[in-house]
Amino acid sequence: MSGPGSPIDQIPSVWGKIIESGTPEFVMIMTEAYASQCSRENYRRGEMEKDFKNNPFSEVIETLNIHAIDIKNGNQFSGLVSFKYNDVGQPEFDEPSYYPCEGDSLNARTPMLFAACRDATLALNRKAI
User: Fold this and answer.
1) How many DSSP H helices and E strands does the chain contain?
2) C-alpha to C-alpha distance for 108 and 88, rounded to whole angstroms
3) Helices 7-19, 109-128: crossing angle, 10 deg rounding
4) Which value, in Å, is the radius of gyration of the alpha carbons in the chain?
5) Facing residues of 76 across strands?
6) pLDDT single digits (tens) 16-49
7) N or C, which end of the chain has less CB nearby within 10 Å?
8) Spatial separation of the C-alpha atoms in residues 51 and 60, rounded to whole Å
9) How is residue 98 annotated by DSSP?
10) Single pTM value for the model
11) pLDDT, tens digit, 9 for 90 and up, residues 78-117
Protein backbone atom coordinates (compact mmCIF):
# COMPACT_ATOMS: atom_id res chain seq x y z
CA MET A 1 0.00 0.00 0.00
CA SER A 2 1.22 3.44 -0.73
CA GLY A 3 -0.23 6.89 -0.78
CA PRO A 4 -0.98 9.71 1.62
CA GLY A 5 -1.66 9.05 5.27
CA SER A 6 -0.95 6.09 7.45
CA PRO A 7 -0.95 2.62 5.84
CA ILE A 8 -3.39 1.60 8.56
CA ASP A 9 -5.78 4.34 7.38
CA GLN A 10 -5.71 2.79 3.92
CA ILE A 11 -6.80 -0.72 4.95
CA PRO A 12 -10.56 -0.20 4.53
CA SER A 13 -10.21 1.46 1.12
CA VAL A 14 -8.14 -1.37 -0.36
CA TRP A 15 -9.90 -4.28 1.33
CA GLY A 16 -12.30 -4.85 -1.57
CA LYS A 17 -9.38 -5.30 -3.97
CA ILE A 18 -7.76 -7.81 -1.65
CA ILE A 19 -10.80 -10.06 -1.52
CA GLU A 20 -11.67 -9.81 -5.24
CA SER A 21 -9.43 -12.81 -5.86
CA GLY A 22 -11.00 -14.87 -3.08
CA THR A 23 -11.16 -15.00 0.66
CA PRO A 24 -7.70 -14.80 2.20
CA GLU A 25 -6.95 -17.20 5.02
CA PHE A 26 -4.43 -14.95 6.67
CA VAL A 27 -3.75 -11.23 6.26
CA MET A 28 -0.96 -9.11 7.66
CA ILE A 29 0.27 -5.56 7.48
CA MET A 30 3.81 -4.43 8.15
CA THR A 31 4.67 -0.83 8.97
CA GLU A 32 7.72 1.11 10.00
CA ALA A 33 7.16 3.44 12.95
CA TYR A 34 8.68 5.36 15.80
CA ALA A 35 8.04 4.18 19.34
CA SER A 36 8.52 5.55 22.82
CA GLN A 37 7.42 4.91 26.37
CA CYS A 38 5.34 8.13 26.38
CA SER A 39 1.73 7.99 27.50
CA ARG A 40 -1.01 8.27 24.88
CA GLU A 41 -2.62 11.38 26.31
CA ASN A 42 0.61 13.32 25.81
CA TYR A 43 1.31 12.06 22.29
CA ARG A 44 0.69 14.15 19.17
CA ARG A 45 1.19 12.73 15.69
CA GLY A 46 4.66 13.51 14.37
CA GLU A 47 6.23 14.35 17.73
CA MET A 48 8.22 11.14 18.00
CA GLU A 49 9.65 11.49 14.50
CA LYS A 50 10.64 15.09 15.21
CA ASP A 51 12.26 14.11 18.52
CA PHE A 52 14.06 11.15 16.92
CA LYS A 53 15.51 13.27 14.10
CA ASN A 54 16.37 16.38 16.09
CA ASN A 55 17.37 15.15 19.55
CA PRO A 56 20.62 13.15 19.72
CA PHE A 57 19.62 11.97 23.23
CA SER A 58 16.12 10.92 22.23
CA GLU A 59 14.68 7.73 23.71
CA VAL A 60 12.47 7.29 20.63
CA ILE A 61 13.30 4.17 18.62
CA GLU A 62 12.52 2.98 15.10
CA THR A 63 10.47 -0.20 14.80
CA LEU A 64 9.05 -2.60 12.28
CA ASN A 65 5.55 -3.64 13.30
CA ILE A 66 3.61 -6.61 12.01
CA HIS A 67 -0.06 -7.17 12.66
CA ALA A 68 -1.86 -10.27 11.37
CA ILE A 69 -5.27 -11.89 11.54
CA ASP A 70 -6.44 -15.41 10.83
CA ILE A 71 -9.65 -14.70 8.89
CA LYS A 72 -11.36 -17.99 9.79
CA ASN A 73 -11.06 -17.85 13.57
CA GLY A 74 -10.40 -14.12 14.11
CA ASN A 75 -7.21 -14.61 16.12
CA GLN A 76 -4.91 -11.61 15.85
CA PHE A 77 -1.19 -11.38 16.51
CA SER A 78 1.31 -8.55 16.63
CA GLY A 79 5.04 -8.44 16.40
CA LEU A 80 7.56 -5.69 16.91
CA VAL A 81 11.27 -5.40 16.33
CA SER A 82 13.30 -2.28 17.01
CA PHE A 83 16.34 -1.42 14.96
CA LYS A 84 19.15 1.10 14.49
CA TYR A 85 21.24 1.92 11.47
CA ASN A 86 24.96 1.20 11.83
CA ASP A 87 27.80 3.44 10.63
CA VAL A 88 27.52 2.14 7.05
CA GLY A 89 23.75 2.62 6.87
CA GLN A 90 22.69 -1.00 7.37
CA PRO A 91 19.91 -1.81 9.84
CA GLU A 92 20.78 -3.79 12.95
CA PHE A 93 17.75 -5.48 14.50
CA ASP A 94 17.07 -6.22 18.16
CA GLU A 95 15.26 -9.36 19.31
CA PRO A 96 11.65 -9.34 18.05
CA SER A 97 8.67 -9.75 20.32
CA TYR A 98 5.40 -11.45 19.33
CA TYR A 99 2.14 -11.56 21.18
CA PRO A 100 -1.52 -12.40 20.59
CA CYS A 101 -4.01 -9.54 20.61
CA GLU A 102 -6.32 -10.32 23.48
CA GLY A 103 -8.31 -8.40 26.06
CA ASP A 104 -7.68 -4.65 26.09
CA SER A 105 -5.26 -4.81 23.15
CA LEU A 106 -8.23 -5.69 20.89
CA ASN A 107 -9.52 -2.15 21.47
CA ALA A 108 -6.48 -0.60 19.80
CA ARG A 109 -6.89 0.94 16.36
CA THR A 110 -5.15 -1.73 14.28
CA PRO A 111 -6.97 -4.75 15.77
CA MET A 112 -10.29 -2.92 15.35
CA LEU A 113 -9.55 -2.28 11.66
CA PHE A 114 -8.56 -5.89 11.11
CA ALA A 115 -11.71 -7.09 12.86
CA ALA A 116 -13.80 -4.85 10.59
CA CYS A 117 -12.05 -6.26 7.52
CA ARG A 118 -12.65 -9.81 8.76
CA ASP A 119 -16.33 -9.09 9.36
CA ALA A 120 -16.68 -7.57 5.88
CA THR A 121 -15.01 -10.61 4.32
CA LEU A 122 -17.27 -13.04 6.15
CA ALA A 123 -20.36 -10.96 5.25
CA LEU A 124 -19.42 -11.03 1.56
CA ASN A 125 -18.92 -14.79 1.72
CA ARG A 126 -22.36 -15.29 3.28
CA LYS A 127 -23.93 -13.27 0.42
CA ALA A 128 -22.12 -15.40 -2.17
CA ILE A 129 -23.53 -18.66 -0.75
Assistant:
1) 3, 5
2) 36
3) 10
4) 17
5) 69
6) 777 777 777 888 888 888 888 766 567 777 888 8
7) C
8) 7
9) E
10) 0.64
11) 888 999 989 999 999 999 998 877 777 666 767 777 777 7
